[in-house]
Each structure stands twice: as C-alpha cells, then as structure tokens.
Amino acid sequence: MDLTDELEQSDSGMESLTASKDDTPERRPEDYFITPSLPSLGSSPSAGTPLGPLKEYDDEPDETLSERLWGLTEMFPECVRSCTYSVTSNTWSGVKSLYGLSRSVMWVVASSSVILFAPVIFEVERAQMAEMEKSQQKQVLLGTNTALSGPTPALPPMPR
C-alpha cells in the first residue's frame, strides 16, 4: 500500500469541511480566504481549484439595534431627522419635568396633611382617653355592669 491509499482509507470526509461554522475560534480569519488561481489558457478549472477571493462573513460581529437604526437615519431627509430629534428631546424633557413636578406636589401634600391633621388626631385621641377615664371611674363607683351599659338615660323629674 502506498501513501495515497492510506490517506483515502483514514479520511472520514471531515477534512474537506475546513470552512464550516463549527470551526474553533482559534482559527485565524486568513484561513477563510480562498486564494485566486488563474487558469492557464486552454485548461478548464477543476473541481478542486479555488474560484476566487471569497470570505465567510459568519465571524463578523452582528450589528446592534442602535447601530442599525443610526445607519438607517441616512435614508431620511434632514428635516425629518431634525423634527424627530426635536420631538424626542422635547418629550424626554417633558417627562422629566412632569416627574419633578409630581415629586414636589407629593411632598407638599404629604407634609401639609401631617401638619394639618396631626393636631386633630391628637385631640380625638385625647378625647377618647378622657372618655375611658370617666368609664373607669364610673366602673369603680357603680360596679362593672353600669360602666359597660354606657351613660344612664336622663330620668323625668319627680313631682313634688
């Protein structure tokens, strides 16, 4: 057996797939270039002869969305681009202003409600505490059932 027979027998068919997508990233991009070879006059190119300088574009990084949108702006006229920019910037500044205004309004409402309603809440609580003290005094003087029944109804005056 000579050397070519050994190569044919050991070839699994994978050696011919040098430019597949599954190649390792360690391969240099120069490996993907096919060198041109000019056929001599009168000879036809064979199946194994490279055809021309082709490059695989699978290794190039994809565009991001912002890069693609920025590239598409060139197809619109300047007036459309400037109008879109002004609408976008005015909308953004309006949203920021509205947010700042809402923060200020919420601060004023919250602080005013605390200042205005805190004394009312304290007075109601003080009145409830006074009512509880009266109830406890009545319970001590008259007994437990009278304190729980609430205030006694006013009796009609007795005739003299």
Short description:
Keywords: Membrane, Mitochondrion, Mitochondrion outer membrane, Protein transport, Receptor, Translocation, Transmembrane, Transmembrane helix, Transport. The protein has 160 residues and is mostly helical.
Please give the count of helices: 4
Helix content: 40-55%
Rounded mean pLDDT score: 75
Oligomer: single chain
Strand proportion, as a percent range, falls in under 5%
| Rg | 46 Å
The poorly predicted ranges are none
N-to-C series of helices and strands: HHHH
Tally of DSSP β-strands: 0
Head-to-tail CA distance between termini:
149 Å
Largest sheet: none
Chart the SSEs and their pairings:
Elements: H1 3-10, H2 65-72, H3 78-142, H4 144-149
Written account of the structure:
With 160 residues, the chain is mostly helical. It has helices at residues 3-10, 65-72, 78-142, 144-149. The radius of gyration is 46 Å and the shape is rod-shaped. The termini are far apart. The mean pLDDT is 75.
Keywords summarizing the entry:
transmembrane helix, protein transport, mitochondrion, single chain, Mitochondrial import receptor subunit TOM22 homolog, mitochondrion outer membrane, 160 residues
